[in-house]
Amino acid sequence: MKKNSEREALRVEHRPENIARRLQREPESQRVSDLVLGGIDGCITTFAIVSGAFGAGFSAAVVLVMGFANLLADGFSMAVSNFEAVAAERDHLESVRRTEKRHIKLVPEGEREEVRQIFAAKGFRGETLERIVATITGNHRLWIETMLTEEYGLSRARYRPLASALATFSAFVVVGAVPLLPFLFAPLSMPSRFAASALLAGLMFFVIGMLKSLVYARPLLRSGFKTLLLGGTAAVLAFATGYLLHSLVDIDAS
């Protein structure tokens, strides 16, 4: 029953008019990777601070100050880094596009030969190959975009640095704040606060892993536990570092 409904949905999706509509849309750059990156890093770094501070014997006030200061500063830093990275990808794409445009203008026959060899390598021969070359090189925009994809392996997705930066920062702050919430409740003891923080952080890691698997059609539990394991490893390292420093160095934990 499930296979039949899936097959019918795919048939509808692959009707000629639906295929044409889908292919005419310019591919969008994915925000999923930005959200996952920000969420995981926000939770890992914040809970690492919680673990290190608890291991060193610091008070709840110190944990909150360190945690929220890091949340904003590191979140902004990460957003800026992602902005620059996406902007660099966009600038590289535009640079290559300008280069190909200039090459087509200066040495069109050489660029046609590149198209010919690219599609010959895909198995096209003779008259069919020549029709493909004529069709592609007859449309200036298609010619350039074909070279970007086939020669340089560049995606046609639109790069939006500001949107990527905002997505990373938002996920970093929202998810990263979760492990700090138990330290806002004064009646709880420090061990209880830390235990609650650890549970919330683990839940965030697991949920992020599951959401990522839903987007990329991966096994839910495996992805959830994998992300949980990675985040938990970072927390254990931070706790051990804080504990060792507290044992080796005379630290005022008040």
UniProtKB/TrEMBL annotation:
It is found in: Endomembrane system. Keywords: Membrane, Transmembrane, Transmembrane helix. It comes from the Bacteria. It is a multi-pass membrane protein. InterPro entries: Ccc1_fam. The chain crosses the membrane at residues 56-73, 162-188, 194-215, 227-245. This is VIT1/CCC1 transporter family protein.
